[in-house]
Amino acid sequence: MSEPKDSPRWFEQAPAPIQAEPRTAPARKDLWVRCPGCEQILFRPALMEQLAVCPHCRHHHRWDSRARLEMLCDEGSFERHDRFVAPLDPLEFADSKSYSSRLAATQRAQGELDAYIAGSATLHGVPVEIGTFDFRFMGGSMGSVVGELVTRQFERAADKKRPAIVISASGGARMQEGILSLMQMAKTCAALARLRDEARMPYISVLADPTTGGVAASFAMLGDVIVAEPHALIGFAGARVIRETIRQELPEGFQTSEYLLEHGMVDLIVPRDELKDALARLCRHLVPRR
Questions:
Q1: Regarding predicted confidence, which is higher, 43 or 13?
Q2: Do 105 and 129 belong together in one domain?
């Protein structure tokens, strides 16, 4: 029997859609990581047991913010504040995706509302107000919520007469919030001035890899003591941007913590496994005796 005249011939028919086969097993996490310091292949769970420090070359890998707080704070002492302060999209910003959709996806992936965690704790019995950036959340960028959380941390430290500690790991101000993110630079520094001038309490800034942009250009470099992790990238703009702006060759490694220590921009370089002891000791020396 011949086909009806109005039906398409076989070579004119659209191909049937390809059906993807369902996964039979969940995707596995990457269990191995190549160390950028020595090129060794490291077993990720073993690396995390070493505080994300390479056992071969002592390269400090970027680290989870919650694990960092667990390492620094006395067991059971950390009391988190302002956990449910969430960002908005006041500019309705969009590039290849809308800012609101990027936020929602990152929040689901990281289990946090934004890139900063802050709270009260003790370090070897010394009461402090402590907070840390989470670089995995949009590059640790500082938007209006991050600026608000840092400001509230400084204000709590002033009210409670406690030292403040901020561990920075940030790509800088969050571009999707425009001028609102840049305003956080002045806002946080104003709260920091109150901590110093009114409460007479110290602020210790810890610079992890990387600390750049508007965070480096504001409170990160204003510590009474500035501590850096080994080989951390620290600076405002990238090396290529600086080179093309000033049209000069730049010194080797000029944005590393070691170079900044040599030139007086950083006070101490402290390995990760010694950081808690160093911070507690600094707090005892800097807090006025009553």
A1: 43
A2: yes
Q: Do 72 and 149 belong together in one domain?
A: yes
Q: DSSP label at 164?
A: E
For residues 42 and 155, state if they share a domain. no
Contact 202, 171 (CB under 8 A): no
Instruction: Please state the rounded mean pLDDT for residues 209-231.
Output: 97
Quote the pLDDT of residue 170. Answer: 97
Q: Looking at the predicted structure, is the pLDDT value of residue 222 above 80?
A: yes
What does the block give as tokens for 287? 């807090």
Q: How confident is the model at residue 40 (pLDDT cuts 50, 70, 90)?
A: very high
How far is residue 277's CA from residue 283's CA, in Å, rounded to a whole number?
A: 10
208/202 Cα distance (integer angstroms):
19
User: Quick check: is 148 in a domain?
Assistant: yes
Q: What is the pLDDT of residue 289?
A: 72
Q: Is the pLDDT of residue 7 over 90?
A: no
Q: Residue 195 falls within a domain, yes or no?
A: yes
Hey, what amino acid is at 146?
V
Q: What is the pTM of this model?
A: 0.87
- Is the backbone of residue 110 left (phi > 0), alpha (psi -120 to 50) or beta? alpha
* Dist CA 128 CA 275 (whole Å): 15
In a domain, residue 40? The reply is yes
- Please tell me the total count of domains within the chain: 2
Tell whether 46 and 146 lie within a shared domain.
no
Residue 1 has pLDDT above 80, yes or no: no
H helices within the chain, ranges in order?
44-49, 65-72, 99-110, 144-160, 179-197, 213-216, 239-246, 257-262, 275-286
Pair 54, 67 in one domain:
no
